[in-house]
Write a structure and sequence with these properties.
By secondary structure, the chain is mainly α. It has 16 helices and two strands. The protein starts with 5 loop residues before the first helix and ends with a helix.
Length: about 300
C-alpha cells in the first residue's frame, strides 16, 4: 500500500499543542525537500530553513552539513543516514562527481552490504526495488534526480518521494516554497501510547516498516507478519526482528543495549505503560530522529498522573 495522497496527508493541518511541542519534523519529507532544493538551484531555501530550526534530529543535522559541503571538494558527511547516503551516492554517480562519503554509527557497518555499482543509475524503478537490499531508497534517489517514471502500488517511502516531487513542483509553479510537516508516523504512535497510559485502547494499523518496533512491542503485529511485509528490516540500524529478544530482556529487568532509535523509544514507551523502570545503554540513540523523545515521555507521565 502506498502512502495517502498529498492532499490527505502532506499539507499542514491544525495539530494538538503537544504535537508542535514534542513531535519532530518528518525527516523523510525534509530530506526530500532539501535534495530537490540542492539539485534545482534553490539551496538557500533548505539552508535557511534548517538554520532556523531547534532540536534537529541527527539525520537532519547531517543534511544541514551536506548542504554546506556538497559544492566543495570536501568529503560528504552523511552521519548515520542511509537515506542521505544512497541519494547522494546515486547523485554522485549520475553527475560524475566522484564524491567521497563519511559515515558514522551503524551505517558504517551497513555500508558493506550496499550496492557499489555506478550503473545503478541506469536501472528502472522496478529494477532498483529488486536490488538485494530490498529498499526503496535507490528508487527514491532516481526520482529525486529527475526520473519521471511512475509505478502503481509503490512501497510507502517511494510514494512519499512521488508526493514530495509533486508538492515541490506545485509550490514552485505558484511562486511558493515547500511546506514542512511533522512526522505523522511518530505522531500516530504517540497518539496510541498516550491513550494507553490513560487506560484506553486505540486501534493501530502498521502502515510502513518504521511502525514495526512499536507495533510488535504493543501486540499490533507479529514477527511473522513483519517479515512478510518488510523483510528489509534486518538491514536497518539493527535487525529489528530481534524485538522479541529485546522485549524479553525488558520484562526481565535487564538493561537494553540496542543502539537503534526506534527500538529504544518503543521499549521506553512499553516501560511507561507497564510501570517498568527500563534502563538503556544508549538512551541518546533516539536523537537520530526524535531528539525530544525523553521530554515527550515526561509530558506523558504528567498525563498519566492526572488520569490516576
Amino acid at each position: 500500500m502506498g502512502s495517502p495522497k498529498e492532499e490527505d496527508r502532506r499539507l499542514p493541518e491544525e495539530k494538538p499543542r503537544w504535537v508542535e511541542d514534542y513531535i519532530p519534523l518528518d525527516k523523510s519529507w525534509i530530506i526530500r525537500m532539501g535534495v530537490l532544493d540542492l539539485f534545482n538551484g534553490n539551496k538557500d531555501r533548505i539552508k535557511n530553513f534548517l538554520g532556523s530550526q531547534k532540536d534537529l534530529g541527527g539525520d537532519l543535522l547531517a543534511l544541514k552539513g551536506v548542504i554546506e559541503t556538497w559544492g566543495t571538494d570536501e568529503p560528504v558527511d552523511v552521519g548515520e543516514s542511509a537515506t542521505l547516503y544512497r541519494i547522494l551516492q546515486f547523485a554522485s554517480w549520475k553527475l560524475n562527481l566522484n564524491k567521497k562519503f563519511i559515515t558514522h554509527g551503524t551505517l558504517t557497518e551497513r555500508l558493506k552490504n550496499m550496492t557499489k555499482d555506478p550503473n545503478t543509475v541506469n536501472l528502472s524503478l522496478n529494477q532498483l526495488l529488486a536490488l538485494p537490499e530490498k529498499t526503496s531508497q535507490w528508487a527514491t534517489a532516481s526520482v529525486l534526480l529527475g526520473n519521471k517514471e511512475r509505478i502503481p502500488n509503490p512501497p510507502y517511502k517511494l510514494q512519499v518521494s512521488f508526493d514530495a516531487v509533486e508538492h515541490w513542483n506545485k509550490q514552485r509553479q505558484h511562486g511558493k516554497t515547500w511546506e514542512p510537516i511533522h512526522d505523522t508516523t511518530i505522531q500516530e504512535q504517540a497518539d496510541v501510547f498516550l491513550a494507553m497510559i490513560q487506560g484506553k485502547k486505540m486501534p493501530f494499523t502498521p502502515m510502513q516498516a518504521e511502525d514495526y518496533c512499536f507495533a510488535y512491542t504493543f501486540g499490533y503485529m507479529s514477527r511473522e507478519e513483519g517479515e512478510a511485509k518488510w523483510p528489509n528490516l534486518r538491514g536497518h540500524e539493527s535487525n529489528r526482528f530481534e524485538m522479541e529478544r529485546i522485549l524479553t530482556r525488558a520484562k526481565a529487568g535487564e538493561e537494553i543495549d540496542s543502539e537503534d532509535h526506534r527500538v529504544v523509544w518503543a521499549i521506553a514507551m512499553w516501560g511507561q505503560v507497564n510501570s517498568k523502570n527500563v534502563k538503556f545503554s544508549y538512551p541518546d540513540a533516539v536523537n537520530k530522529t526524535w531528539p525530544k523523545f525523553w521530554a515527550f515521555l515526561e509530558y506523558a507521565k504528567s498525563l498519566q498522573k492526572l488520569s490516576e
